[in-house]
Design the sequence.
């Protein structure tokens, strides 16, 4: 019985982590280095984004504040926009339920912009 309870607890607490859909973010305008050449994208610390149950989570390498998120529908209309004013490495944005569509997410951290896309089925 004890093994069953332990297994049940693992499933209840770990399943949401496994179900989160990762959103691949890319730098929108990579910084330039000498001679106007773009900085190698591998050297840029891109935040990690995921969506689960109507909540977008953004993880940054360094504690950041003023993290802004905008979500656009397939027609380019803003369906969600918010700014996290908490200094943290993890920022959560409750976007609620979205209709079935393709979406674009834009994340701003300071002067840096990142963009990705995701689909709601």
Sequence:
């Amino acid at each position: 019985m004890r093994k069953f309870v332990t297994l049940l607890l693992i499933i209840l607490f770990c399943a949401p982590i496994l179900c989160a859909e990762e959103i691949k973010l890319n730098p929108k305008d990579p910084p330039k280095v000498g001679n106007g050449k773009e900085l190698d994208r591998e050297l840029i610390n891109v935040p990690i984004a995921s969506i689960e149950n109507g909540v977008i989570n953004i993880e940054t390498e360094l504690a950041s504040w003023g993290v802004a998120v905008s979500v656009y529908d397939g027609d380019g209309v803003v369906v969600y926009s918010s700014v996290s004013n908490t200094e943290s490495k993890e920022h959560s944005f409750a976007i609620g339920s979205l209709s079935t569509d393709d979406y674009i997410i834009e994340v701003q951290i300071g002067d840096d912009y990142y963009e990705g896309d995701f689909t709601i089925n």
Summary: Confidence is low (pLDDT under 50) at residues 12-18. The CA atoms of residues 108 and 117 lie 15 Å apart. Helices lie at 2-19.
